[in-house]
UniProtKB/TrEMBL annotation:
<dbReference type="InterPro" id="IPR001365">
    <property type="entry name" value="A_deaminase_dom"/>
</dbReference>
<keyword id="KW-0862">Zinc</keyword>
<dbReference type="InterPro" id="IPR032466">
    <property type="entry name" value="Metal_Hydrolase"/>
</dbReference>
<keyword id="KW-0378">Hydrolase</keyword>
<keyword id="KW-0546">Nucleotide metabolism</keyword>
<keyword id="KW-0479">Metal-binding</keyword>
<protein>
    <recommendedName>
        <fullName>Adenosine deaminase domain-containing protein</fullName>
    </recommendedName>
</protein>
<comment type="similarity">
    <text>Belongs to the metallo-dependent hydrolases superfamily. Adenosine and AMP deaminases family.</text>
</comment>
<dbReference type="GO" id="GO:0009117">
    <property type="term" value="P:nucleotide metabolic process"/>
</dbReference>
<dbReference type="GO" id="GO:0006154">
    <property type="term" value="P:adenosine catabolic process"/>
</dbReference>
<dbReference type="Pfam" id="PF00962">
    <property type="entry name" value="A_deaminase"/>
</dbReference>
<dbReference type="GO" id="GO:0046103">
    <property type="term" value="P:inosine biosynthetic process"/>
</dbReference>
<dbReference type="InterPro" id="IPR006330">
    <property type="entry name" value="Ado/ade_deaminase"/>
</dbReference>
<feature type="domain" description="Adenosine deaminase">
    <location>
        <begin position="15"/>
        <end position="325"/>
    </location>
</feature>
<dbReference type="GO" id="GO:0046872">
    <property type="term" value="F:metal ion binding"/>
</dbReference>
<dbReference type="GO" id="GO:0004000">
    <property type="term" value="F:adenosine deaminase activity"/>
</dbReference>
Length: 338
């Protein structure tokens, strides 16, 4: 028990990088509860709190329908953006790439939404010694027209913190091939791309995504040996979300997670939360899980965090700042200086 507590303490002090964090899914449960209680016709506990403990893949997405019903209005978006960044900073995360699908509320446009998120990011990051950038998400359930609009709005704010485009959403909806023109446009505009892939068994689409060669992949759970071989050959970094995969029953517990295979292959991987509010986790907890499960020492955990920097969409100057902060942390972490 002493060792586990010591490992948890180390993982919390370790400077970390978060590259797969959905804004709405990272919302505090206390904030969700407050929003729920504000509704005139609702009281008591949230109906999905019990479901957080044991649920399948599709029920995880049903939780988002509740969140989207409650998170209405730019004042709420402003609040949760600030809270999410504060929560990451408390975990000693030094760089975050938040991602969100742009939404319109009443007389407020999607560009208004984007501007509120970017302003909250800038102001909160400045208060907490953390750098934050944004990935504009394309929901695969939406039309190509909406996807094109998302890219166009991202272009308008490219110099204000938008660094990439994400393809996300329920993988049983829509097709990568139908939205590919928007992603190609994003690439022409100079954006880096991260695509959710292989969250379910869909080997044909996973092959299409690998052929497209995005800068990163999210999850990459269900892959044949041939697909994995191509992934390893291309060295496309993978955003690993262990707790998310376990709670959505995409794998059989930590030992059955593909992190182990990818790590042994020295494939570029980044430990991420996915939705730290929905899945009740933190980046520190994700590091603690792999340390315990795969018997990684503190130097190995440090190196895992350090290597994540190379996979980010941050500027080269920012990456060097993150590396310096990592080096400066070694003494306080109890690691020998290299």
């Amino acid at each position: 028990m002493e060792h586990a507590e010591s490992l948890e303490g180390f993982c919390k002090k370790l400077p970390k990088i978060e590259l797969h964090a959905h804004l709405n899914g990272s919302i505090r449960m206390s904030t969700i509860q407050e929003l729920w209680d504000r509704k005139a016709d609702r009281s008591g506990d949230l109906p999905f709190l019990e479901a957080q403990k044991t649920k399948d893949f599709q029920s995880a997405f049903s939780m988002f329908s509740v969140i989207y019903q409650l998170v209405q209005g730019l004042d709420v978006i402003d609040r949760i953006t600030r809270e999410v960044i504060e929560d990451f900073a408390k975990e000693n995360v030094i760089y975050v790439e938040l991602r969100t699908t742009l939404k319109a509320y009443d007389d407020k446009t999607k560009l208004d939404y984007l501007d509120v998120v970017l302003k909250a990011m800038r102001e909160t990051a400045a208060l907490h010694n953390i750098e934050v950038n944004l990935l504009v998400s394309i929901n695969r359930a939406e039309s190509l027209e909406n996807a094109m609009e998302a890219v166009e709005l991202a272009v308008q704010r490219k110099d204000q913190g938008v660094v990439g485009i994400d393809l996300c959403g329920n993988p049983v909806c829509g097709k990568f091939s139908e939205l590919r023109p928007a992603l190609e446009k994003a690439r022409r505009e100079g954006f880096k791309l991260t695509l959710h892939a292989a969250e379910i068994v869909n080997y044909g689409e996973t092959q299409e995504i690998l052929d497209f060669s995005p800068e990163r992949l999210g999850h990459a759970v269900f892959m044949t040996d041939d697909l994995k071989s191509q992934l390893f050959s291309k060295k496309i970094p993978v955003e690993i979300c262990i707790t998310s995969n376990i709670k959505s029953q995409s794998c059989d517990g930590p030992l059955g997670h593909h992190f182990g295979e990818f790590y042994r292959k020295s494939h570029p991987i980044i430990l991420c939360t996915d939705d730290m509010g929905v899945f009740c986790t933190s980046v520190s907890q994700e590091f603690s899980i792999v340390g315990d499960t795969f018997q990684l020492g503190r130097e190995e955990l440090y190196d895992l965090s350090l290597s994540s920097i190379d996979c980010s969409f941050a500027s080269e100057a920012s990456k060097e700042t993150f590396r310096r902060r990592m080096r400066e942390s070694r003494t306080s972490l109890g690691l020998e200086n290299k």
